[in-house]
Design goal:
By secondary structure, this protein is an alpha/beta fold. It has 16 helices and 13 strands. It binds pyridoxal-5'-phosphate.
Length: 399
């Protein structure tokens, strides 16, 4: 009897061993302070090409001051879920500002972007409905689909023609259908054909959700996202964003019509049954949003750096998505090779994460370079040179 608990959990040892054998283990590392451009790691300052803090606002003194002030006024924790007493003035102010920024009727805040996606999908679909997802869409969208009980259908990455064919055949099987895509894909840095998707959604009477997690603050006029860039924001029924990336804070949001937001507010379990994000996180995001709008040089710098690095990597032989974004994937194939390149770059002073399955599909291991507005052209040039050197070292005959 006494060895039963161990036997029950033996499968976990096997799972951990299998992961290690396939070079898929990850060790959590406690990092030191970051400036946006750099991050302290093991006592060394590295150039940081690993964060989603695209506008370098997470460490901005004005953002920190806004958070500090709100924490002094409202306390640190929100203390309750929003429907009880967890919805404070900073939440309200941020929600209003985001709605006006996104030119939407209303906005709802969630503890994270993950919770926003999951909650919105659970509020909008149930058994008898279907969710059509781009194959590379984020885990939170998949998780929402699973939790909702709706059928989960997957279409090939960016392939709106295929989606159209599938819907032609299957639309009649379901009551309500939600099509969901990312506005800027988190691991590939490419963008979906939103005008076509919006057209398909209208044609087949489907709801359309665009997850703008990586696009908010980065893509489109004033950083309003991919839907705004393609001028389809009005026909995208649900736009989800995060405060945790370009806005340098923590939290998620959904914008849409007032009716949609009222419904989500009453039907999203991740909104109803989870504590509000800290008021200070909301205040910080609000200040970050203000800065992001009033300092367009951040987006311009990001775009210039992205173009420059994409050009260098293309000349080295990698295929990069058009138009270039601050997310630049360097495909290396095997997890082992990707880890080796990431380690070598670390030695040279660059923090560039090795992204391996299950974050990306099997065979899709890559370095994921992410740029931010605090990087300089010299930083990017140095990184490109280091990558060129690694390629030459691996394959000396090539040069
Ligand atoms: C990061 C991310 C999320 C989740 O946002 P968090 O605020 O980090 O929880 C959702 N969707 C996509 C595409 C993301 O990359």
């Amino acid at each position: 009897m006494s060895d039963q608990p161990r036997a029950t959990l033996d499968w976990i040892d096997t799972a951990n061993r299998d992961r290690a054998d396939q070079h898929l283990s990850r060790t959590l590392q406690a990092r030191g302070p970051s400036t946006g451009r750099t991050i302290v790691d093991g006592g060394r300052a590295l150039l940081n090409f690993a964060s989603n803090d695209y506008l370098a606002l997470a460490c901005d003194p004005r953002v920190i001051e806004a958070a500090t002030h709100a924490a002094r006024t409202f306390g640190w924790g929100a203390g309750a879920s929003p429907a009880v007493v967890g919805w404070k003035l900073p939440h309200q102010e941020l929600a209003q500002e985001l709605a006006s920024f996104e030119q939407a009727e209303a906005c709802l805040l969630f503890p994270t972007g993950f919770a926003a996606n999951q909650g919105a999908i659970q509020a909008l679909t149930s058994p008898g409905d279907a969710l059509y997802l781009d194959r590379l869409a984020h885990a939170s969208l998949v998780s929402g689909a699973r939790a909702s009980g709706a059928a989960l259908r997957v279409y090939p990455h960016l392939d709106h023609a295929r989606l159209c064919e599938i819907l032609q055949r299957e639309r009649c099987r379901y009551r309500r259908v939600l099509i969901a895509t990312e506005g800027l894909f988190s691991m590939d840095g490419d963008q979906p054909p939103l005008p076509q998707l919006s057209h398909i959604a209208q044609h087949f009477d489907c709801m359309l959700l665009v997850d703008e997690a990586h696009a908010t603050g980065v893509v489109g006029p004033e950083g309003r996202g991919a839907a705004a860039k393609h001028q389809v924001a009005d026909s995208v029924h649900v736009r989800v964003g995060t405060l945790s990336k370009a806005l340098g804070s923590l939290g998620g949001f959904v914008v849409g019509t007032r009716a949609l937001i009222t419904h989500v507010q009453h039907a999203a379990p991740t909104f109803l049954y989870s504590t509000s994000l800290p008021p200070a996180a909301a205040a910080a995001a609000r200040e970050a949003l203000r800065i992001s709008r009033s300092e367009p040089w951040r987006r311009e710098q990001l775009l210039a750096l992205s173009g420059h690095l994409a050009e260098r990597l293309t000349r080295l032989g990698w295929n990069l998505p058009e138009p270039p974004s601050p997310i630049l994937p360097v495909h290396l194939g095997s997890p082992e090779r990707t880890k080796a390149w990431s380690d070598a770059l670390l030695q040279a002073g660059f923090l560039v994460p090795a992204i391996r399955p299950p974050t990306v599909p099997r065979g899709g291991a890559r370095l994921r370079i992410s740029l931010n507005a605090a990087h300089t052209s010299a930083d990017v040039e140095a990184l490109a040179n280091a990558i060129a050197q690694l390629r030459t070292r691996e394959n000396p005959s090539h040069d």
